[in-house]
Write a structure and sequence with these properties.
Aminopeptidase, seven-stranded mixed β-sheet, 4 helices, 7 strands
Length: about 140
């Protein structure tokens, strides 16, 4: 059974390894450790039988939040883990009085775009050339007012 919980420092090795597996410009373990030390962040992991199968992060600034990454191990996709992570971020953000969430997603990442739309996000615009390796535009997606 998949459990969603707050990320802890001892999770960062597994999270950084997953990050390297999924993204062309991955965060480092130290990057995750630094983010966890900040008061204005919410980082979650999905865990099953002691293994980290996904994670998500959010930076909070007053009433707005920015989702940094949502990642699920390739072999675990299609089981609802991403949706559970995003839904929990939305819930925890609301507890912090966040009324609006924003994120960027590669325009070619149809599964992620559909996930965010199912969670209530809508495309608001495009950031040309936002991503590197490979160079690609990003959709700006917004949740809330």
């Amino acid at each position: 059974m998949i459990r969603i919980r707050r990320m802890r420092p001892e999770d960062t090795d597994a999270v950084a390894a997953l990050e390297c597996q999924i993204f062309s410009q991955p965060w480092t373990r130290q990057g995750f450790l630094d983010a966890l030390k900040m008061e204005c962040t919410i980082f979650l992991v999905a865990e099953e039988q002691g293994e980290i199968t996904g994670y998500a992060g959010l930076y909070v600034s007053l009433e707005e939040g920015e989702i940094t990454n949502v990642a699920v191990a390739p072999e675990e996709r299609g089981r609802g883990t991403g949706q559970r992570l995003v839904t929990e971020l939305i819930r925890l953000a609301a507890e912090c009085a966040v009324t609006r969430l924003v994120l960027e997603v590669r325009v070619s990442n149809d599964p992620a775009i559909r996930l965010y739309e199912r969670c209530g996000f809508a495309i608001q615009g495009v950031r040309p050339g936002f991503y590197e390796l490979p160079k690609e535009d990003a959709y700006i997606m917004l949740y809330g007012q």
